[in-house]
Each structure stands twice: as structure tokens, then as C-alpha cells.
Design brief:
Helix content is 37%, strand content 24%. It is built from eleven helices and twelve strands. Strand 11, helix 9 and strand 12 form a beta-alpha-beta unit. Helix 1 runs parallel beside helix 3 and helix 7 runs parallel beside helix 8. 49% of the residues are buried.
Length: 243
């Protein structure tokens, strides 16, 4: 997967067919932002080179729910823009189907924790196609839509997934996710130091300074949701600041 230069990746989180943002992943904290294709096109118009899609219903329910919205986005995105998708992907067959649909990378969270070998199985068939999502709350990897602790240390887990063939690690700091109060760089630095594959940071971005701080950690990219949707800064301005 591309890692250079560092960039900002807009999030398109899907619930009930709409774009939403949640505070710390809690159901009932939804802020809704309308049609997914409209959102995707807005970010493309502002220079996005990668889109980060999450089927939140799928993450909570353990099966893909927003397939029609995902398909509509994939059909509208130019070939030179990467699309990565997570949420409800539980089997090798799920992953291959999505890759065949036109998704560039699948993001595995719960499935990778429960069955680590799924990462190797997909990677063998489609190299560089799997990103493992490590969502951390109080320094512990959490799964099932951030509702269940695992006892896993994020850096230790990341090392294992790198050995299994993961193309990258998506690290979400649930402690600051969606709060628009700023990032914590130390946990990201720890993951970057632990693995040689790209680390994509997520959670807490409230300003362009946060974006720049995450670049300094050595992360490959940052996923931004609430800050863009709430107008804390524009994608145009963030990308310009990185130049």
C-alpha cells in the first residue's frame, strides 16, 4: 500500500445508509451528515486520494449491512483513488467479494483478533490487500464495535499481524475518538516503532496542528472524520499544510 507522502484520509462512516460520526464509538451519539455518495464526492473534489469507509452497522452486528451504499461509492470513485473498507467483514469470502467489487483494501478488526490466520489467508490470495484495525481503549485492543476488551496490547498485536502479512495497521485511539479535543501521539509512536509496515492513525483530530503532529510520529496517514464534517478545517487546507 502507498505510504508516501503522508496524507489525510477522509472517513465515510455508514449507518442506516447515511454518513454518521459517533463519539467514542457509542451508539446513540450519532451526528448525521447525509448521503454517502455526496460525502465521497465532496472529499474527492477537495483532493482526497484515499477514502476510508466503515460499515458501522456491520461492526456492531457482525455482518455487512450497508453494502448498497458501499457499492454506490465504489462506482463513483475514479480508479486512481483508493478505497478501504471495514466493518462486518468476518470471512475470507467476504473480503474477496469486496476486493472483487473494487475495494482496494479490506480492514479487519474483530475477525483478525478472533482468527489471526484470516489475515494470512486473504493476503496469500490478494497481497497488500489487508489492513488490520487495532482499536484501543485505555491501552487495550477492543472489538465488536469497541464494546469488548481483549487483553491485547496494541503494539504486540501489531507485530503479530505484520508477520501474518498485513499490509498496514489502522490504529484508532478510542479514548479521544470523535471528541474533537486533540490527539495523543505517544500510542501512535509506539506502534510505528513496533512494526515496519505502515501505521494509519485515527482518533481525536481537531485541528491541522493535530494532523502535523501525527505526521511527526512516523505514521503513514491519518483518518479524519468529525473535524472535517464539523468544519474545524477543510481537507484542502490540511493537504496544503502538508506540502
Amino acid at each position: 500500500m502507498a505510504t508516501d507522502p503522508f496524507t489525510v484520509v477522509p472517513a465515510v462512516d455508514l449507518r442506516d445508509g447515511e454518513v454518521v460520526q459517533l463519539v467514542q464509538g457509542e451508539r446513540g451519539t450519532d451526528r448525521r451528515y447525509g448521503d454517502p455518495v455526496d460525502a465521497a464526492n465532496r472529499w474527492l473534489d477537495q483532493g482526497a486520494t484515499t477514502l476510508h469507509l466503515v460499515d458501522l452497522d456491520g461492526a456492531f452486528e457482525g455482518k455487512r449491512v450497508n453494502a448498497s451504499a458501499v457499492k454506490a461509492i465504489v462506482e463513483t470513485v475514479p480508479e486512481d483513488v483508493d478505497v478501504q473498507l471495514g466493518g462486518g467483514i468476518r470471512t475470507v469470502e467476504d473480503a474477496i467479494e469486496l476486493l472483487d467489487l473494487g475495494i482496494d483494501r479490506v480492514i479487519l478488526g474483530t475477525a483478525a483478533v478472533e482468527e489471526p490466520e484470516i489475515v494470512a489467508a486473504i493476503s496469500e490470495r490478494r497481497p497488500e490487500s489487508v489492513v488490520v484495525s487495532l482499536d484501543a481503549k485505555d491501552g487495550e485492543v477492543v472489538v465488536e464495535g469497541w464494546t469488548e476488551g481483549t487483553g491485547l496490547d496494541p503494539a504486540t498485536a501489531a507485530e503479530r499481524y505484520a508477520e501474518l502479512g498485513a499490509a498496514g495497521i489502522l490504529f484508532t485511539n478510542v479514548d479521544v475518538e470523535g471528541k474533537l479535543e486533540g490527539v495523543q501521539t505517544e500510542p501512535v509512536e509506539r506502534l510505528v516503532d513496533a512494526v515496519s509496515i505502515p501505521v494509519i492513525a485515527s482518533g481525536g483530530v481537531a485541528s491541522i496542528d493535530d494532523v502535523l503532529a501525527l505526521r511527526e510520529t512516523g505514521a503513514a496517514a491519518v483518518v479524519v472524520g468529525s473535524a472535517l464534517y464539523e468544519g474545524a478545517f477543510t481537507l484542502d487546507d490540511a493537504l496544503a499544510a502538508l506540502e
